[in-house]
Each structure stands twice: as C-alpha cells, then as structure tokens.
Structure of tRNA N6-adenosine threonylcarbamoyltransferase:
Amino acid sequence: IIILGIESSCDDTSAAILKNETVLSNEIAGQKVHEAYGGVVPELASRAHQQNILPVVDTAIKNAKIKLKDIDAIAFTRGPGLLGSLIVGTSFAKSMALGLDIPMVEVNHMHGHVLAHFIDDQQKEKPQFPFICLTVSGGHTQIVLVKDYLDMEVIGTTKDDAAGEAFDKSAKLMGLPYPGGPLIDKYAQDGNPNAYQFTTPKMPDFDYSFSGLKTNFLQFLQRETKKDVDFIKNNLNDICASLQHTIINILFDKLIKAVELHNINQVAIAGGVSANAGLRNRLEEEGEKRNWKTFIPKFEYCTDNAAMIAIAGRYQFLQGNFAQQDISPNARLKFTS
Ligand code: ATP
Ligand code: FE
C-alpha cells in the first residue's frame, strides 16, 4: 500500500510517500518569514503553505520514484493546529483525491506524533501495546496510554503552556530567536544543570503546568541582570542547562508516576521536544534504572513531518476509516473522536 501524507498544521509544509511502513520520501518546507516576529504568524503561515504545497508534494512523489497512479490513498492532517494552515493541506488532499479518484483518510496530528514510532527505518524494535508515550511538542504536553494504533487515551496533560512553549518562551526572554528550544538544547550541552534552581509546579495526578516556571524564570533574569547587565551572555550555558534540567524533571516526575500506576514497562517519547538531547538521555537513564524498554524516534520524525501523518493514515486506511469530500479541518480536533 502506498500512501501520500500531507501535513500543514503549523508552519511546516510537508509531504511524504510511505510504502507499507517504509518511508520512500519525506519532504519538508519550513517557513522563514516568521523569524522576524518571534513566533508563528497564522496568516503568513497559511499563505506560505499555499506557495509550498504543490512543489513539496511534487518533490515527494519524484523523490519516492513512484508515479501518481501508484498512490493508493491520501492522508492529511485534519487538526489540531492553525485553521488557515489546516485548510490548505485539507483542501489540497481533497482535490487531489477527487482528481485521482482514490480514498483519503483524516489524521489527528497528535496521533501522528505517537505513531511515528511505527515507521520502519528507526530503532530495530517497535513498541508493543500497551505502551506509554510522553508527547511533548510546541502546543501539547500529553501522557498517552497507547492501547492500539487507533485506540489511545490522554491520561495527563498541561493546564497552561506546553513543554515546547516553556522552551520557546524562556528562550525569547533570553533574547534568543524563535524557535528557541533547539538553541537551549545546544547551549545546555556545555552548562551545569545544577547552577540555578527554578520552581516546579504542584499539580494533581498526571497533569502539568509550565506557566509558573516561565514567571519564575522571568523574575530570575530581571533580578540577575539588574546586578550584571551581561548576566545572560556570561552564563548562557549554565542558565540553559538549569532550565532544561528543570523542564525535564517536571516531565519525568509525572511520567514515572503514570508508568508505575499503569504497571507498563514500555515507554516512548514523541513530538518536537523529544528531539531534545537532555530528554532523550534522561529517558535512557530512567529506562536502565527502572527496567523500562524505551523508544526514542529518529530526529526527523520528532518535529512536524508528513511521514508520521502517512503512517497514522495507513492504520485508518487498513480499518477502512475513509474521509468524505464534505470533511473540513478542525483547529481544535479532539484527541479521541
Ligand atoms: P503540536 O504538535 O503540539 O501541534 P507543533 O507541531 O508546532 O505543535 P512540533 O513541531 O511537534 O510542534 O514541535 C516544535 C516544538 O519543539 C517547538 O516548541 C520547538 O522549540 C521544540 N523543539 C524542537 N527541537 C527541540 C530541542 N532539541 N529541544 C527542545 N525543544 C525542541
Ligand atoms: Fe507537531
């Protein structure tokens, strides 16, 4: 089965060709226009998707060395995400499916992040059901109990900012460009994670909160730069390492509890923040200590990509869950529908 995946939920336009569980191509066009604004501007994102989508899909098909007629179905991200961005991918998928007279399947972007673990060319082993997946991205922080490809449940989530936002907003406070997450990761590698202490939230059950940390971090920077105007520049590595260490501690505190309560020994991470070196190392450490089998996606399947949409679409296709031509995108698509 050959599936064309289309992802356009935020600021990356991506198209991928998946043959069974193997990726034949996975093209991504990023959008530089947002850099000047320090965050994604929805209207500009939607316009850039319109410019990018045709060449990106075309390149994905060419690089996969397949013909249009080889495609069995089109999978597209229906939501959640920015409405204007989702409309571009959804409309494109609909018209292409109509033109080629092939079925289409809708994908929940967050299911895509989780199911990226089932793409073939990664770790030798794939997770077995049930497993727990910590999904950490730009807009979400979820502890997901994954019972089957299409049967998953969010057992913990953030009540305010997402983990990726905690990285990006903190980076912005330090004057780093958007998105700051990867930069904090980079500077943290040469810093001392115990140089500074930041506040950690008290939340019930498996829920998260990152807004208190953001405020605490802002006050910390204000206090220290009053004493030394070059405080951030002179201590960037230690600040980044300490902040990252705090975010990872917050994430793992709840993750460990969830894994223990559900008595599951297979633990995965997914989403853009799972590209973070500190988070990846921590999962391996905890795995060794606690006898977990751990699953870490390849870098290119952490941040937004269409290969993960195609693999999630594959399972919808196998179940015969087809989308109809009257479908519209849903910016707030629920995790379980
Ligand atoms: P969502 O998936 O919730 O809709 P999104 O699709 O915008 O949000 P992703 O592309 O999955 O988010 O992830 C982007 C986020 O990942 C950004 O917040 C970015 O800073 C963060 N991120 C990417 N790489 C790293 C890294 N190495 N360390 C920390 N954060 C990172
Ligand atoms: Fe995402």
About this structure: The pocket of fe (iii) ion (ligand 2) is lined by residues 109, 113, 137, 272, 304 (CB under 6 Å).
